[in-house]
Write a structure and sequence with these properties.
Blueprint lengths: L9 E7 L6 H4 L3 E7 L3 E9 L19 E7 L12 E7 L4 E6 L5 E3 L11 E7 L11 E9 L12 E11 L5 E4 L8 H4 L5 E5 L16 E6 L3 E4 L2 E4 L18 E3 L6 E2 L3 H5 L32 E7 L41
Parallel strand pairs: 2-13, 12-13
Antiparallel strand pairs: 1-18, 2-3, 2-16, 3-9, 4-5, 4-10, 5-6, 6-7, 8-9, 10-11, 10-12, 11-17, 14-15
């Protein structure tokens, strides 16, 4: 069929969702992105969670006792068996708390300050989609956007295609506790303390191919250099805007990481090991959160949202620069920004418009 017809074909797509058969763990998906510029390493994450909990909103509190998202970095491609003073652990709570720790030569994590005189300050915004600390309703989850200054990591900006050690860990609290590690082979302790068991992050530059990691290497995250802008309220804004909302065109979709909490990704949570480090404090009024040791995570119940989705399905999209004679209809706006969005059904492809 010729593309010259330019006929807009709209089909209603009705998707009936089965709330059983694995839907429980699907509600715990995590998606994260990275990018960087001369001043910051940027990280964003969307954490699905039906019961978002957390009460630590300050600096260097034990945010891992809340629903949290953690980034582990080790400067350099050679990753040792134990953390050292080139290792960093950055944690963000769903309640907005922020923990920044650096390894010491003896292999111990120590609280550190992310503030460096004369250097940019860290950026952090968290948005909860639902209610915090209320198990009576079904939440959608929470998002975070984070900017970590290179100066806080003891470095200047990385060279193009420089390689560091990298891992991501997510704790889930509130009903049954669990931990997700981006590198599934890492044991609970190794996921935090053994850079040799982590993956890699490659800081891709503007030119050339990504650095070669090595034959058979897995768990490699490609981090694009932040460039260009995206549209907010009709105006172009430099990427990224750290406001706690992951928006269309803000983060590089090509290198995003999507992960479901499959059984091999779940790790036992050594809750008691962290209990002694918990900072004392009063539970805020109306907060139902209680820390407690709980065994490995189990099913969280059925999906409580709408069971019927109505989407607009379009067959006229085309955006292939190799054939400029074909129409690029409904693909980009007047500024050249993409109109396509990976919505609504878990990003099934670019044929869904941004509904």
């Amino acid at each position: 069929m010729s593309w010259s017809w330019r006929l807009l074909l709209i089909l209603p797509l009705l998707a009936l969702l089965n709330p059983a058969a694995g839907r429980e763990q699907e509600l715990d998906r995590v998606r994260f992105y990275t990018q960087w510029n001369d001043d910051y390493l940027f990280v964003a994450a969307k954490c699905e969670d039906v019961n978002v909990v957390g009460r630590r909103s300050g600096l260097n509190q034990p945010v891992w006792l809340d629903d949290d998202f953690e980034v582990f970095l080790h400067h350099g491609k050679e990753k040792p068996e134990k953390i050292n003073d080139q290792s960093y652990w950055i944690s963000v709570s769903a309640a907005g708390g922020f923990s920044f720790q650096r390894g010491d030569p003896g292999g111990t994590w120590l609280p550190a300050s992310p503030l460096v005189a004369g250097a940019p300050s860290p950026k952090l915004e968290v948005r909860v989609h639902g209610s915090l600390n209320d198990p009576a309703d079904a939440d959608l989850g929470w998002e975070l956007e984070l900017g970590i200054p290179w100066a806080a990591l003891g470095q200047t900006k990385p060279a193009p295609n420089e390689v560091w050690g990298f891992n991501v860990v997510r704790h889930l609290r509130g009903d049954q506790d669990a931990r997700f590690s981006y590198v599934p082979q890492a044991t609970p302790i190794a996921a935090q303390t053994a850079p040799a068991r982590w993956g890699f992050i490659v800081f891709r530059g503007n030119q050339g191919e990504s650095a070669w990691i090595g034959p058979g290497e897995q768990n490699v995250v490609i981090s694009e250099r932040a460039a260009g802008s995206f549209e907010v309220a009709g105006r172009p804004v430099p990427r990224p805007l750290v406001d706690g909302v992951i928006q269309i065109g803000e983060w590089p979709d090509l290198y995003r990481i999507d992960a479901e909490l499959r059984p091999e990704y779940l790790l036992d949570v050594p809750h008691e090991a962290f209990a002694a480090n918990e900072a004392p404090g009063e539970v805020p009024a109306g907060c139902s959160f209680q820390t407690r040791p709980v065994p490995t995570r189990t099913a969280r119940g059925v999906y409580l949202g709408e069971r019927l989705i109505l989407a607009t399905y379009r067959l006229d999209y085309h955006d292939d620069a190799r054939d400029p004679q074909r129409p690029a209809f409904g693909v980009r706006d007047a500024t050249g920004a993409s109109l396509l969005a990976a919505q609504p059904l878990r990003g099934l492809g670019p044929w869904f418009s941004g509904l």
